[in-house]
Write a structure and sequence with these properties.
With 253 residues, this protein is an alpha/beta fold. It folds into two domains: 2-80 and 194-250, D-Maltodextrin-Binding Protein, domain 2, CATH 3.40.190; 92-190, Periplasmic binding protein-like II (D-Maltodextrin-Binding Protein, domain 2, 3-Layer(aba) Sandwich), CATH 3.40.190.10. It has helices spanning 14-30, 46-49, 61-68, 128-131, 134-137, 147-156, 166-175, 177-180, 205-222, 241-245, and strands at 2-3, 54-58, 72-80, 89-90, 92-97, 112-115, 140-143, 161-165, 183-188, 192-193, 197-200, 233-237. Strands 1-2-11-3-12 form a five-stranded mixed sheet, with helices on one face. The chain has a five-stranded mixed sheet with strand order 7-6-8-5-9. Helix 1 packs across helix 9. The longest helix has 18 residues, at 205-222. The protein is globular and about 60 Å long.
Amino acid sequence: MIATLPMYDWPELADANRALWECLYDAFCEVGFSPPKSLSQAEEGKGHWLQPDLMFSQTCGYPLAVDLLGKVDVLATPIYGVEGCGDGTYRSALVVPKNATFGSLIDTKESRFAFNGANSLSGFRCMFPKVGDPRAWFSQSVESGSHRASAQRVADGGADVAAIDAVCWAYIQQYDPKVAEQLRVLDWTDVVPALPFISAKSKTDEEASLKRSALNAGITDALQRPETKPLFLTGVTEKPIQDYIKLRLLSSG
């Protein structure tokens, strides 16, 4: 079996993610599953998320909507206690250099855009409702590989704008304060459902229900452990699957 937490896998959060998985491991074992003792390192991507022995992972809402729905179990949606997040929702902070003269997003046309990946809801697809295809709006669009790298690129002067997942923006302020101090939030993107927890498709509804019950129990236990506090995780909820299906509208380009 495989268990991963690839979406917020920062080195500074390794102990917190490990503590979270320890609680989830115990909860899955309690209801009869045989989860792996430790988290595996895995790249984001549907190949990994579609593994038949995937016990637990977290994915992005956009890949879920266009590639994974019906092929995995959606167990729950996390709630994060940071600015830009709500009850199972989040937004992206549109960050620019602190001293940039941009007064609003309209002023960024023909500037330079840094994004983590074209399949990312929070770093790229979230721009479609705001400006259309960012590759047409901006004069230059450069793929950085991560939100952290995008923020660094804007801070270093290699780009003018980046869309940073609200949770990652909170992490940047916590762990990269020198970068955060060189940036300001120009605007926020629209509210979308947060990054869901998933597992391989269950054979029965009963099996899927057991997974969801175990996840809820494990999260409840994890929130009592001080080691998990750096994750800013405050709970989980169930979002209507239609909320994710709507993200398919961001598939242009």
